[in-house]
Amino acid sequence: MTDNPAATTDRRPGGRTARVRAQVLDAVRAELAERGHEGLTMEGVATRAGVHRTTVYRRWHDVGGLLADVIDAAGETDWQPPDTGSLHGDLTALNEEIQESLLVRPSFAVALVAASFHSEQAARAQTRLWADRYAQCEILVARAVARAELPPTEARALLITATAPLYHHLVLLRSAPDPHLPERSAATAVAAARAGAFSL
Amino acid sequence: MTDNPAATTDRRPGGRTARVRAQVLDAVRAELAERGHEGLTMEGVATRAGVHRTTVYRRWHDVGGLLADVIDAAGETDWQPPDTGSLHGDLTALNEEIQESLLVRPSFAVALVAASFHSEQAARAQTRLWADRYAQCEILVARAVARAELPPTEARALLITATAPLYHHLVLLRSAPDPHLPERSAATAVAAARAGAFSL
User: Fold this and answer.
1) Per-residue pLDDT reduced to its tens digit, B165-175
2) I need a surface site. Which of A75, B104, B168, B185 has the fewest CB within 10 A?
Protein backbone atom coordinates (compact mmCIF):
# COMPACT_ATOMS: atom_id res chain seq x y z
CA MET A 1 0.00 0.00 0.00
CA THR A 2 2.95 2.30 0.55
CA ASP A 3 3.54 2.42 -3.21
CA ASN A 4 0.10 3.96 -3.69
CA PRO A 5 0.13 7.79 -3.35
CA ALA A 6 -3.44 7.66 -2.04
CA ALA A 7 -2.45 5.32 0.79
CA THR A 8 -1.69 7.98 3.41
CA THR A 9 -5.11 9.61 3.16
CA ASP A 10 -6.70 6.14 3.14
CA ARG A 11 -5.20 5.43 6.57
CA ARG A 12 -7.42 7.95 8.36
CA PRO A 13 -9.99 6.39 10.72
CA GLY A 14 -13.01 5.47 8.65
CA GLY A 15 -10.91 5.55 5.46
CA ARG A 16 -10.43 2.66 3.05
CA THR A 17 -7.67 1.06 5.16
CA ALA A 18 -9.87 1.02 8.24
CA ARG A 19 -12.81 -0.25 6.19
CA VAL A 20 -10.77 -3.11 4.71
CA ARG A 21 -9.48 -4.04 8.16
CA ALA A 22 -13.02 -4.08 9.56
CA GLN A 23 -14.23 -6.31 6.71
CA VAL A 24 -11.29 -8.69 7.05
CA LEU A 25 -11.52 -8.96 10.84
CA ASP A 26 -15.29 -9.55 10.65
CA ALA A 27 -14.53 -12.38 8.24
CA VAL A 28 -11.85 -13.80 10.59
CA ARG A 29 -14.31 -13.79 13.50
CA ALA A 30 -17.01 -15.47 11.43
CA GLU A 31 -14.63 -18.12 10.05
CA LEU A 32 -13.16 -18.77 13.51
CA ALA A 33 -16.59 -19.18 15.04
CA GLU A 34 -17.80 -21.47 12.25
CA ARG A 35 -14.71 -23.56 11.57
CA GLY A 36 -12.25 -22.94 14.42
CA HIS A 37 -8.73 -21.77 13.77
CA GLU A 38 -7.90 -25.00 11.93
CA GLY A 39 -10.33 -24.01 9.20
CA LEU A 40 -8.97 -20.47 8.97
CA THR A 41 -7.19 -19.74 5.68
CA MET A 42 -6.01 -16.54 4.02
CA GLU A 43 -8.12 -17.42 0.96
CA GLY A 44 -11.25 -18.18 2.98
CA VAL A 45 -10.97 -14.88 4.82
CA ALA A 46 -10.33 -12.90 1.63
CA THR A 47 -13.33 -14.47 -0.11
CA ARG A 48 -15.64 -13.95 2.83
CA ALA A 49 -14.46 -10.35 3.30
CA GLY A 50 -14.79 -9.58 -0.41
CA VAL A 51 -11.20 -8.29 -0.39
CA HIS A 52 -8.47 -9.26 -2.86
CA ARG A 53 -6.29 -11.96 -1.36
CA THR A 54 -3.06 -10.14 -2.24
CA THR A 55 -4.26 -7.33 0.06
CA VAL A 56 -4.78 -9.85 2.87
CA TYR A 57 -1.32 -11.39 2.34
CA ARG A 58 0.40 -7.99 2.11
CA ARG A 59 -1.12 -6.65 5.28
CA TRP A 60 -1.46 -9.71 7.55
CA HIS A 61 1.19 -12.05 6.05
CA ASP A 62 -0.26 -15.28 7.46
CA VAL A 63 -3.00 -16.79 9.62
CA GLY A 64 -1.02 -15.91 12.76
CA GLY A 65 -1.10 -12.27 11.70
CA LEU A 66 -4.88 -12.40 11.21
CA LEU A 67 -5.37 -14.00 14.63
CA ALA A 68 -3.12 -11.49 16.35
CA ASP A 69 -4.93 -8.57 14.72
CA VAL A 70 -8.38 -9.85 15.62
CA ILE A 71 -7.22 -10.19 19.24
CA ASP A 72 -5.65 -6.71 19.17
CA ALA A 73 -8.94 -5.35 17.77
CA ALA A 74 -10.80 -6.89 20.72
CA GLY A 75 -8.49 -4.84 22.96
CA GLU A 76 -9.38 -1.64 21.09
CA THR A 77 -13.08 -1.76 21.90
CA ASP A 78 -14.05 0.54 24.75
CA TRP A 79 -14.85 -2.20 27.21
CA GLN A 80 -15.50 -0.95 30.74
CA PRO A 81 -15.30 -3.05 33.90
CA PRO A 82 -18.56 -3.29 35.89
CA ASP A 83 -19.39 -0.76 38.60
CA THR A 84 -22.16 -2.10 40.83
CA GLY A 85 -21.22 -0.42 44.11
CA SER A 86 -19.61 -3.44 45.82
CA LEU A 87 -16.60 -5.63 45.09
CA HIS A 88 -18.76 -8.75 45.35
CA GLY A 89 -21.22 -7.30 42.84
CA ASP A 90 -18.46 -6.14 40.49
CA LEU A 91 -16.64 -9.49 40.49
CA THR A 92 -19.91 -11.38 40.03
CA ALA A 93 -20.81 -9.20 37.03
CA LEU A 94 -17.31 -9.64 35.58
CA ASN A 95 -17.52 -13.41 36.02
CA GLU A 96 -20.97 -13.53 34.44
CA GLU A 97 -19.54 -11.74 31.41
CA ILE A 98 -16.65 -14.23 31.25
CA GLN A 99 -18.95 -17.24 31.69
CA GLU A 100 -21.24 -15.97 28.94
CA SER A 101 -18.31 -15.48 26.53
CA LEU A 102 -17.08 -19.02 27.20
CA LEU A 103 -20.50 -20.71 26.96
CA VAL A 104 -21.95 -19.01 23.88
CA ARG A 105 -21.70 -21.38 20.87
CA PRO A 106 -19.71 -20.85 18.75
CA SER A 107 -17.42 -19.16 21.28
CA PHE A 108 -14.95 -16.67 19.85
CA ALA A 109 -13.13 -16.65 23.23
CA VAL A 110 -12.62 -20.43 23.25
CA ALA A 111 -11.55 -20.38 19.57
CA LEU A 112 -8.85 -17.84 20.47
CA VAL A 113 -7.59 -19.99 23.34
CA ALA A 114 -7.37 -22.98 20.99
CA ALA A 115 -5.59 -20.86 18.36
CA SER A 116 -3.06 -19.61 20.91
CA PHE A 117 -1.60 -23.13 21.13
CA HIS A 118 -0.77 -23.06 17.43
CA SER A 119 0.34 -19.53 16.71
CA GLU A 120 3.03 -17.76 18.73
CA GLN A 121 1.72 -14.45 17.37
CA ALA A 122 -1.82 -15.24 18.52
CA ALA A 123 -0.51 -16.39 21.91
CA ARG A 124 1.39 -13.12 22.41
CA ALA A 125 -1.61 -11.03 21.34
CA GLN A 126 -3.83 -12.95 23.74
CA THR A 127 -1.36 -12.46 26.61
CA ARG A 128 -1.36 -8.69 25.87
CA LEU A 129 -5.16 -8.55 25.74
CA TRP A 130 -5.53 -10.38 29.05
CA ALA A 131 -2.87 -8.18 30.68
CA ASP A 132 -4.81 -5.10 29.53
CA ARG A 133 -8.14 -6.43 30.77
CA TYR A 134 -6.76 -7.37 34.18
CA ALA A 135 -5.10 -3.93 34.40
CA GLN A 136 -8.44 -2.28 33.59
CA CYS A 137 -10.13 -4.35 36.32
CA GLU A 138 -7.72 -3.17 39.01
CA ILE A 139 -10.07 -0.22 39.48
CA LEU A 140 -12.63 -2.62 41.02
CA VAL A 141 -10.18 -3.38 43.80
CA ALA A 142 -9.08 0.26 44.20
CA ARG A 143 -12.71 1.29 44.62
CA ALA A 144 -13.28 -1.47 47.21
CA VAL A 145 -10.23 -0.29 49.16
CA ALA A 146 -11.46 3.33 48.92
CA ARG A 147 -14.86 2.19 50.28
CA ALA A 148 -12.97 0.48 53.15
CA GLU A 149 -14.34 -2.91 52.07
CA LEU A 150 -10.77 -4.25 52.07
CA PRO A 151 -7.32 -3.49 53.42
CA PRO A 152 -4.78 -2.34 50.79
CA THR A 153 -4.81 -5.34 48.45
CA GLU A 154 -2.76 -6.75 45.60
CA ALA A 155 -5.38 -6.31 42.89
CA ARG A 156 -4.04 -8.68 40.25
CA ALA A 157 -3.82 -11.71 42.58
CA LEU A 158 -7.37 -11.09 43.81
CA LEU A 159 -8.69 -10.77 40.24
CA ILE A 160 -6.99 -14.01 39.17
CA THR A 161 -8.46 -15.85 42.17
CA ALA A 162 -11.93 -14.56 41.29
CA THR A 163 -11.82 -15.37 37.57
CA ALA A 164 -9.49 -18.38 37.15
CA PRO A 165 -12.10 -20.98 38.26
CA LEU A 166 -14.37 -19.88 35.38
CA TYR A 167 -11.70 -20.63 32.78
CA HIS A 168 -10.63 -23.76 34.62
CA HIS A 169 -14.15 -25.23 34.69
CA LEU A 170 -15.32 -24.13 31.28
CA VAL A 171 -12.20 -24.24 29.10
CA LEU A 172 -10.00 -26.92 30.70
CA LEU A 173 -12.20 -29.23 32.78
CA ARG A 174 -15.20 -28.79 30.43
CA SER A 175 -17.55 -29.03 33.40
CA ALA A 176 -21.29 -28.67 32.95
CA PRO A 177 -22.14 -24.96 33.24
CA ASP A 178 -23.03 -23.90 36.77
CA PRO A 179 -25.13 -20.72 36.94
CA HIS A 180 -23.91 -20.14 40.52
CA LEU A 181 -20.21 -20.29 39.66
CA PRO A 182 -19.75 -16.57 38.80
CA GLU A 183 -21.15 -15.49 42.16
CA ARG A 184 -19.48 -18.27 44.16
CA SER A 185 -16.09 -17.61 42.69
CA ALA A 186 -16.51 -13.87 43.34
CA ALA A 187 -17.56 -14.55 46.95
CA THR A 188 -14.52 -16.83 47.49
CA ALA A 189 -12.12 -14.14 46.28
CA VAL A 190 -13.77 -11.51 48.48
CA ALA A 191 -13.61 -13.84 51.53
CA ALA A 192 -9.91 -14.52 50.91
CA ALA A 193 -9.24 -10.79 50.43
CA ARG A 194 -11.05 -9.88 53.66
CA ALA A 195 -8.99 -12.55 55.45
CA GLY A 196 -5.89 -10.71 54.23
CA ALA A 197 -4.77 -13.24 51.58
CA PHE A 198 -3.78 -10.48 49.15
CA SER A 199 -2.86 -7.74 51.63
CA LEU A 200 0.03 -5.50 50.67
CA MET B 1 -6.48 -59.78 17.38
CA THR B 2 -9.64 -61.71 18.22
CA ASP B 3 -9.02 -64.05 15.27
CA ASN B 4 -5.75 -65.13 16.82
CA PRO B 5 -6.19 -68.07 19.22
CA ALA B 6 -3.17 -66.86 21.23
CA ALA B 7 -4.79 -63.44 21.79
CA THR B 8 -6.49 -64.25 25.10
CA THR B 9 -3.30 -65.39 26.81
CA ASP B 10 -1.52 -62.36 25.29
CA ARG B 11 -3.91 -60.05 27.08
CA ARG B 12 -2.60 -60.93 30.52
CA PRO B 13 -0.69 -58.10 32.27
CA GLY B 14 2.88 -58.20 31.04
CA GLY B 15 1.83 -60.21 27.98
CA ARG B 16 2.34 -59.18 24.37
CA THR B 17 -0.77 -56.97 24.30
CA ALA B 18 0.39 -55.03 27.35
CA ARG B 19 3.91 -54.80 25.93
CA VAL B 20 2.68 -53.44 22.59
CA ARG B 21 0.48 -50.91 24.37
CA ALA B 22 3.42 -49.75 26.51
CA GLN B 23 5.65 -49.36 23.43
CA VAL B 24 2.96 -47.48 21.49
CA LEU B 25 2.05 -45.15 24.36
CA ASP B 26 5.74 -44.40 25.02
CA ALA B 27 6.01 -43.45 21.35
CA VAL B 28 2.89 -41.24 21.59
CA ARG B 29 4.34 -39.39 24.61
CA ALA B 30 7.68 -38.88 22.88
CA GLU B 31 6.07 -37.68 19.62
CA LEU B 32 3.68 -35.37 21.50
CA ALA B 33 6.52 -33.86 23.50
CA GLU B 34 8.72 -33.36 20.43
CA ARG B 35 6.17 -32.32 17.83
CA GLY B 36 2.94 -31.50 19.65
CA HIS B 37 -0.32 -33.17 18.72
CA GLU B 38 -0.26 -31.60 15.26
CA GLY B 39 2.79 -33.69 14.42
CA LEU B 40 1.24 -36.88 15.77
CA THR B 41 0.49 -39.48 13.08
CA MET B 42 -0.41 -43.16 13.20
CA GLU B 43 2.58 -43.92 10.97
CA GLY B 44 5.03 -41.87 13.06
CA VAL B 45 3.90 -43.62 16.24
CA ALA B 46 4.08 -47.09 14.65
CA THR B 47 7.60 -46.45 13.34
CA ARG B 48 8.84 -45.03 16.62
CA ALA B 49 7.26 -47.87 18.61
CA GLY B 50 8.62 -50.52 16.25
CA VAL B 51 5.10 -51.93 15.89
CA HIS B 52 3.34 -52.75 12.63
CA ARG B 53 1.07 -49.91 11.64
CA THR B 54 -1.89 -52.21 10.98
CA THR B 55 -1.70 -53.16 14.68
CA VAL B 56 -1.83 -49.47 15.62
CA TYR B 57 -4.82 -48.82 13.32
CA ARG B 58 -6.68 -51.93 14.51
CA ARG B 59 -6.32 -51.14 18.17
CA TRP B 60 -6.42 -47.32 18.33
CA HIS B 61 -8.27 -46.48 15.09
CA ASP B 62 -7.02 -42.88 14.83
CA VAL B 63 -4.93 -40.15 16.51
CA GLY B 64 -7.86 -39.33 18.82
CA GLY B 65 -7.79 -42.94 20.02
CA LEU B 66 -4.05 -42.73 20.73
CA LEU B 67 -4.47 -39.48 22.65
CA ALA B 68 -7.37 -40.82 24.69
CA ASP B 69 -5.43 -43.98 25.59
CA VAL B 70 -2.30 -42.07 26.62
CA ILE B 71 -4.47 -39.92 28.90
CA ASP B 72 -6.26 -42.99 30.29
CA ALA B 73 -2.84 -44.57 30.95
CA ALA B 74 -1.82 -41.49 32.96
CA GLY B 75 -4.88 -42.15 35.13
CA GLU B 76 -3.78 -45.77 35.70
CA THR B 77 -0.49 -44.87 37.40
CA ASP B 78 -0.66 -45.13 41.18
CA TRP B 79 -0.40 -41.41 41.82
CA GLN B 80 -0.95 -40.45 45.45
CA PRO B 81 -1.89 -36.98 46.67
CA PRO B 82 0.63 -35.37 49.08
CA ASP B 83 0.37 -35.91 52.85
CA THR B 84 2.46 -33.31 54.66
CA GLY B 85 0.43 -32.96 57.88
CA SER B 86 -1.34 -29.68 57.05
CA LEU B 87 -3.77 -28.55 54.37
CA HIS B 88 -1.51 -25.62 53.49
CA GLY B 89 1.44 -27.98 53.08
CA ASP B 90 -0.57 -30.49 51.06
CA LEU B 91 -1.99 -27.89 48.66
CA THR B 92 1.43 -26.28 48.24
CA ALA B 93 2.99 -29.64 47.38
CA LEU B 94 0.14 -30.40 44.96
CA ASN B 95 0.55 -27.01 43.29
CA GLU B 96 4.31 -27.48 43.02
CA GLU B 97 3.70 -30.75 41.23
CA ILE B 98 1.24 -29.05 38.87
CA GLN B 99 3.57 -26.09 38.23
CA GLU B 100 6.45 -28.46 37.47
CA SER B 101 4.34 -30.46 34.99
CA LEU B 102 3.30 -27.27 33.19
CA LEU B 103 6.77 -25.69 33.09
CA VAL B 104 8.92 -28.66 32.07
CA ARG B 105 9.80 -28.38 28.36
CA PRO B 106 8.52 -30.16 26.41
CA SER B 107 5.42 -30.38 28.61
CA PHE B 108 3.27 -33.45 28.12
CA ALA B 109 0.54 -31.79 30.22
CA VAL B 110 0.39 -28.70 27.99
CA ALA B 111 0.47 -30.86 24.84
CA LEU B 112 -2.59 -32.73 26.14
CA VAL B 113 -4.45 -29.48 26.80
CA ALA B 114 -3.68 -28.32 23.26
CA ALA B 115 -4.76 -31.69 21.85
CA SER B 116 -8.04 -31.57 23.76
CA PHE B 117 -9.17 -28.66 21.56
CA HIS B 118 -8.84 -30.85 18.47
CA SER B 119 -10.01 -34.27 19.51
CA GLU B 120 -13.33 -34.89 21.24
CA GLN B 121 -11.98 -38.25 22.40
CA ALA B 122 -8.89 -36.62 23.94
CA ALA B 123 -11.07 -33.94 25.56
CA ARG B 124 -13.32 -36.55 27.15
CA ALA B 125 -10.34 -38.59 28.38
CA GLN B 126 -8.80 -35.46 29.88
CA THR B 127 -12.05 -34.53 31.62
CA ARG B 128 -12.17 -38.05 33.12
CA LEU B 129 -8.54 -37.87 34.25
CA TRP B 130 -9.03 -34.50 35.92
CA ALA B 131 -12.24 -35.67 37.61
CA ASP B 132 -10.35 -38.68 39.00
CA ARG B 133 -7.45 -36.59 40.24
CA TYR B 134 -9.68 -34.05 41.96
CA ALA B 135 -11.64 -36.94 43.53
CA GLN B 136 -8.36 -38.44 44.80
CA CYS B 137 -7.40 -35.07 46.30
CA GLU B 138 -10.61 -34.78 48.32
CA ILE B 139 -8.79 -36.74 51.03
CA LEU B 140 -6.61 -33.66 51.66
CA VAL B 141 -9.70 -31.73 52.68
CA ALA B 142 -11.20 -34.62 54.65
CA ARG B 143 -7.95 -34.91 56.65
CA ALA B 144 -7.94 -31.13 57.31
CA VAL B 145 -11.53 -31.32 58.57
CA ALA B 146 -10.62 -34.33 60.75
CA ARG B 147 -7.70 -32.32 62.20
CA ALA B 148 -10.19 -29.50 62.91
CA GLU B 149 -8.26 -27.15 60.63
CA LEU B 150 -11.50 -26.38 58.81
CA PRO B 151 -15.28 -26.59 59.25
CA PRO B 152 -17.00 -29.23 57.07
CA THR B 153 -16.00 -28.02 53.60
CA GLU B 154 -16.95 -28.64 49.99
CA ALA B 155 -13.70 -30.25 48.91
CA ARG B 156 -13.95 -29.86 45.15
CA ALA B 157 -14.58 -26.09 45.23
CA LEU B 158 -11.64 -25.60 47.59
CA LEU B 159 -9.35 -27.70 45.39
CA ILE B 160 -10.33 -25.77 42.26
CA THR B 161 -9.68 -22.44 44.02
CA ALA B 162 -6.23 -23.68 45.07
CA THR B 163 -5.16 -25.08 41.70
CA ALA B 164 -6.94 -23.02 39.02
CA PRO B 165 -4.56 -20.01 39.23
CA LEU B 166 -1.64 -22.30 38.27
CA TYR B 167 -3.33 -23.37 35.05
CA HIS B 168 -4.61 -19.85 34.42
CA HIS B 169 -1.15 -18.27 34.73
CA LEU B 170 0.88 -20.95 33.03
CA VAL B 171 -1.42 -22.35 30.33
CA LEU B 172 -3.73 -19.46 29.44
CA LEU B 173 -2.05 -16.17 30.44
CA ARG B 174 1.45 -17.58 29.75
CA SER B 175 2.81 -15.51 32.65
CA ALA B 176 6.46 -15.70 33.60
CA PRO B 177 6.84 -18.54 36.13
CA ASP B 178 6.53 -17.39 39.74
CA PRO B 179 8.17 -19.74 42.26
CA HIS B 180 5.89 -18.38 45.00
CA LEU B 181 2.66 -19.06 43.13
CA PRO B 182 2.13 -22.67 44.38
CA GLU B 183 2.36 -21.58 48.01
CA ARG B 184 0.42 -18.33 47.54
CA SER B 185 -2.41 -20.00 45.74
CA ALA B 186 -2.56 -22.70 48.43
CA ALA B 187 -2.60 -20.04 51.16
CA THR B 188 -5.40 -18.15 49.42
CA ALA B 189 -7.58 -21.26 49.25
CA VAL B 190 -6.91 -22.06 52.92
CA ALA B 191 -7.77 -18.47 53.94
CA ALA B 192 -11.03 -18.60 51.98
CA ALA B 193 -11.87 -22.01 53.47
CA ARG B 194 -11.21 -20.80 57.02
CA ALA B 195 -13.43 -17.81 56.33
CA GLY B 196 -16.19 -20.27 55.46
CA ALA B 197 -16.23 -19.76 51.68
CA PHE B 198 -16.71 -23.49 51.01
CA SER B 199 -18.58 -24.46 54.17
CA LEU B 200 -21.24 -27.12 53.79
Assistant:
1) 999 999 999 99
2) B104
